[in-house]
Design a protein that fits this description.
Layout lengths: L4 H4 L3 E10 L3 H11 L5 E4 L15 E2 L7 H8 L1 H25 L3 E2 L3 E5 L2 H16 L5 E3 L10 E5 L3 E3 L1 H11 L3 E3 L4 E7 L2 E6 L2 E10 L5 H4 L8 E10 L10 E4 L4 E5 L5 E5 L17 H14 L1 H4 L3 E11 L6 E5 L2 E8 L5 H18 L25
Parallel strand pairs: 1-2, 1-12, 2-9, 5-14, 12-19
Antiparallel strand pairs: 3-8, 4-8, 5-7, 6-7, 10-11, 11-12, 13-16, 13-17, 14-15, 15-16, 18-19
Helix pairs in contact: 2-6, 2-10, 3-4, 4-6, 4-10
The structure holds flavin-adenine dinucleotide.
Length: about 400
């Protein structure tokens, strides 16, 4: 991105102890964690809070990762798989606690991962067994608890749903940071032992910066091109249905399709990109007829009463995917006081809060990052399993 002389000379100076760039779930919560230490914190965004994926998702608070648990153990090793899974459990609990504290709409309705094929059913059974062995709540059923033609299900009783925009807005309103929005950041520089964040309206001087840009990170930090890539996800919402047909967070087809009924009766559904992975990349915000047709076919087969309900709205959002399916935290090589936390692989509601805490501890105290450390990516191969992904 470039900026003209005329635009730049209008930017005003702001000073803070720390600046957080990106006001999604990760940045809004990181700003709150930093402000809780007594620091003077600025939270800035190109648009407004929850303008990115955090305001466009399904609001599922799921424990888990992209991969099934037994596949995660095979792919990452047992210790890392267990630690990453535990981080998702703790994130979910933190999100529910914040929702309670701030009066954000949420429900601990459990989740059902539903198989549409026999091999998928076998994977769910293996996943449930591996989870149980490590003390994570999960129950396999070799039939469809919804009675809609699925083959089997994995039930996670403690999962739930939340209004993602309300949560981000509450974190911004109560988090104690100064919000500076409509301020597209176009450059970051190491400056006077700290960081200079050059935005369209404000140039922010701070001791340190936390970059919570997820899929947008490589646009600002070219070093991150190899770390996170933009992947589009699409959704729609129906008009309110005349009755309640679903009281859980459902996802199926290895997690590629996901659906729930909102408190006001609307049916929310997303996914449909499994056959269109080559097309569903980049930052372009639009829905496509072919992906929306996959969603319509799924509804026709498993929820025919919804297939006839009017669709009120369709939308898309941009997720940040890493080569191995786990989020990453690290320091920008050329700007040591800038820490990034990105790459939530379609699970940022489920992994973001606790990852943000780890990133803040790293920025403040150089706390070890362990499996979250970006350095783990040197020499890895792209992710093997693709379960449960937005
Ligand atoms: C359709 C869809 C459904 C999903 N469903 C779920 C789900 O049910 N459960 C789940 O766990 N996850 C889900 N996800 C994934 C989840 O939404 C993301 O992982 C999460 O929101 C990432 O949060 P974030 O704060 O890291 O990034 P974002 O929310 O994308 O925030 C990044 C912010 O950076 C700002 N920004 C970008 N560039 C600049 C710049 N140059 N200067 C200043 N600011 C900038 C953007 O405006 C944006 O506000 C879904 C995603 C999509 C798209």
């Amino acid at each position: 991105m470039s900026v003209s002389y005329w635009q730049r000379r209008r930017a005003q100076r702001l000073d803070a102890d720390y600046v957080v760039v990106g006001a999604g779930i990760v940045g809004a919560y990181a700003a709150m964690c930093l402000a809780e230490t007594g620091a003077d914190v600025v939270l800035t965004d190109a648009r407004h809070p929850a303008a990115g994926a955090s305001g466009r998702n399904a609001g599922f608070l799921l424990s888990g990762l992209v991969a099934y648990y037994h596949d995660a153990i095979a792919q990452y090793g047992h210790a890392t798989a267990r630690a990453a899974w535990q981080l998702s459990v703790e994130t979910r609990e933190r999100a529910f606690a914040l929702a309670e504290a701030f009066g954000v709409e949420h429900a601990r309705c459990g989740s059902l991962l539903l198989a549409v094929r026999d091999e998928e059913a076998q994977a769910l059974e293996q996943a449930a067994r591996a989870m149980q062995a490590d003390g994570f709540a999960a129950e396999f059923t070799p039939r469809d608890p919804l009675g809609r033609g699925f083959v089997a299900a994995l039930h996670k009783p403690d999962d739930g749903v939340i209004d993602p925009v309300a949560l981000v807005q509450a974190l911004v309103a109560h988090g104690g940071a100064q919000g500076v929005f409509d301020n597209e950041v176009w450059a970051l520089e190491a400056h006077a032992g700290g960081v200079l964040v050059r935005g369209a309206r404000y140039e922010i001087h701070a001791r340190g910066a936390l970059l919570a840009l997820n899929a947008y990170a490589p646009l600002l930090v070219p070093e991150l091109w190899a770390v996170v890539r933009p992947v589009r996800a699409q959704m729609f919402v129906s008009a309110p249905l005349p009755e309640r047909i679903l009281d859980t967070a459902g996802y199926a087809n290895d997690g590629y399709e996901y659906f729930r009924q909102s408190a006001d009766g609307r049916f929310l559904m997303g996914g449909g990109r499994r056959r269109f992975k080559a097309e569903e990349v980049g930052w372009e915000d639009r829905t496509t007829p072919q992906v929306q047709a996959v969603l319509a076919d799924f509804l026709q087969r498993y929820f025919p009463e919804v297939a006839h309900a009017p669709v009120e709205q369709r939308w898309s959002g941009t997720m940040g995917f890493t080569p191995d399916g786990l989020p990453v935290v690290g320091r920008v090589p050329s700007i040591p006081n800038a820490v990034f936390a990105v790459g939530f692989n379609g699970h940022g509601m489920g992994l973001g809060l606790k990852t943000a805490e780890r990133a803040v501890a790293h920025l403040l105290h150089n706390a070890p990052l362990e499996w979250l450390d970006v350095n783990r990516l040197s020499g890895t191969t792209p992710t093997k399993a693709q379960g449960a992904s937005a």
